[in-house]
Amino acid sequence: MKSQRWIVAAAAAALGLWGLGWCLPDGRRAARVLPPTALTPQFREKLKSSWHELHARLGEDILLSPEAYSPGFRSMAIAEPGWKTPPPLLLNSARSFLLRSGHEDESDILFALSKVKPWKGQFNPRIYFYGGAYL
Q: What gap in Å lies between CA 111 and CA 106, rounded to an integer?
């Protein structure tokens, strides 16, 4: 009976490790969407500064703000086609292809876990989603 448990545990570990690289952030994903001229150090600096500006404007609970996911609700935003580097309107979306995995909710979980600081007695992740008992 004990040997069967070890076999099952080893098989589960092997399958888990085998799938570890699936959908991780990858330059190939960004290359499918962004033109090669966009993947420059200057563009990466733009991404960094736009993140800092967004974070400063929306505050510590940035993921809870609907503005983090939209250009605003009062008007329609239009990005003209034919750009060589993403316009400011698309910077935050372009960042996702470089930093996030293929599963959009993973960053929410990591963000929530970053708010938990057990050594300070802070166990509130400050983000709650339905079905989020694992947090």
A: 9
